[in-house]
Design brief:
Blueprint (H helix, E strand, L loop, with lengths): L1 H14 L3 H20 L4 H16 L13 H11 L4 H19 L28 E5 L6 H12 L3 E5 L7 H4 L12 H9 L5 E5 L9 H12 L1 H4 L2 E2 L6 E2 L5 E6 L7 H4 L2 E5 L5 H19 L7 E3 L4 H4 L10 H19 L6 E3 L4 H5 L1
Parallel strand pairs: 1-6, 1-7, 2-3, 3-6, 8-9
Antiparallel strand pairs: 4-5
Length: 363
């Protein structure tokens, strides 16, 4: 068993944990070693618990971060590529990103300006808490709230972490469970950071208004800590039991409405109202974004499927008015799947959906 203990010690040293945490873990390993030598009946359970704990610690990105791409022109290109219309909203997000870019470039006087007016980006090891407001996209289902956050991450070259609040039943789901419990595990924040392996992702707090009613107050309390840069630089998960710096992360939130979001949380958010799409916008999005994407995902080519212009007005309103494009996306995917089936069933190799036959593709 001494061999296993020594391996754990080597693992801890290689991981380069924060000094205080490394000392804390070393003490636990010494205690475990003495316990195993004494032959206590509970030692092996303690060994499994300690091994699992160390595995989590050494796989967290304590100092790992992604390098930002600080190019506002590139960011604009990303949003224009991913989103049709919504010009005022895209402009507001680009202004938000501009603040972040300038903060990254001018930290503590380390930014340098060239004659061209361009600025040299700084590496992420020059830390400073972001002070830009936290954007909260509010709107009906399918209006593009989540995809805006995806585009923000792409524009900055950051990983995206989505934390779903829909149906969240306990604050412990966010903050983890203490290791005194046999079923202890980290919360979804720490789990997500381990998955993306960087400490500066874009963290999407999705559907803030849909948390469990009876635990709303506790969950909102954790949210206040997450959104406050003075507190999130030392976010403590109950399982990890050591502060983790989240101040380099960029938080973005979404909600269908703000009625059920605590005032203390709302004070930290800047609400951006997502409008409903017009019929004209939906048709353009369907033609230029949804259909090409669905065709590509299905392994087909544009030559396999065409949809007549006369059909699109019917597709965008199958059951009346719909604020978003989620239903249109499902219909488009259905048409593509029907096409794939017809091709494999030797009914043809190229199909055109028109006013006469569209029902056989959508039903």
């Amino acid at each position: 068993m001494d061999f296993q203990i020594n391996k754990l010690k080597e693992t801890v040293l290689k991981a380069k944990l924060p000094p205080e945490l490394e000392a804390k873990v070393s003490t636990q390993l010494e205690r475990l070693s003495l316990s195993l030598r004494s032959g206590q009946a509970s030692s092996y359970g303690y060994y499994e618990q300690t091994t699992s704990y160390i595995e989590w610690l050494v796989n967290l990105p304590w100092t790992k971060n992604s390098q930002d791409i600080l190019d506002i022109a590139r960011a604009k290109t990303v949003f224009d590529k991913n989103h049709y219309g919504l010009n005022q909203i895209k402009q507001r997000i680009l202004e938000f990103l501009s603040v972040i870019i300038l903060q990254r470039q001018f930290q503590i006087g380390n930014g340098t300006e060239h004659n061209s007016g361009q600025f040299t980006p700084l590496h992420n090891d020059h830390k400073q808490s972001f002070r830009a407001p936290i954007l909260c996209f509010v709107g009906l289902v399918g209006t593009g709230k989540t995809t805006m956050a995806v585009s923000m991450a792409e524009a900055l070259n950051r990983q995206l972490v989505r934390i779903p609040f829909g149906g969240l039943a306990s604050a412990l789901d966010l903050r983890g469970l203490s290791r005194i419990h046999s079923e202890a595990e980290p919360g979804i924040i720490i789990k997500a950071l381990r998955r993306v392996q960087v400490n500066n992702p874009v963290i999407l707090l999705d559907e803030l208004d849909r948390v469990s009613e009876d635990k709303r107050q506790e969950i909102m309390g954790v949210l206040v800590e997450l959104l406050d840069p003075e507190q999130n630089k030392a976010f403590t998960d109950h399982y990890v039991d050591y502060p983790f710096d989240l101040s380099q992360s960029i938080f973005v939130a979404t909600a269908n409405n703000t009625d059920k979001i605590a005032t203390a949380v709302m004070d930290r958010l800047e609400v951006i109202q997502m409008p409903s799409y017009t019929d004209e916008e939906k048709i353009h999005i369907g033609k230029q974004y949804l259909l090409p994407s669905a065709i590509k995902e299905a392994g087909l080519s544009p030559q396999h499927l065409k949809i007549d212009d006369a059909v699109w007005p019917v597709l965008i309103r199958p059951l009346g008015f719909d604020a978003g494009i989620r239903t249109l996306k499902r219909i488009t995917q259905t048409i593509v799947r029907k096409t794939a089936w017809k091709i494999l069933n030797h009914e043809g190799n190229a199909f055109t959906v028109n006013s006469a036959n569209y029902r056989e593709f959508v039903e």
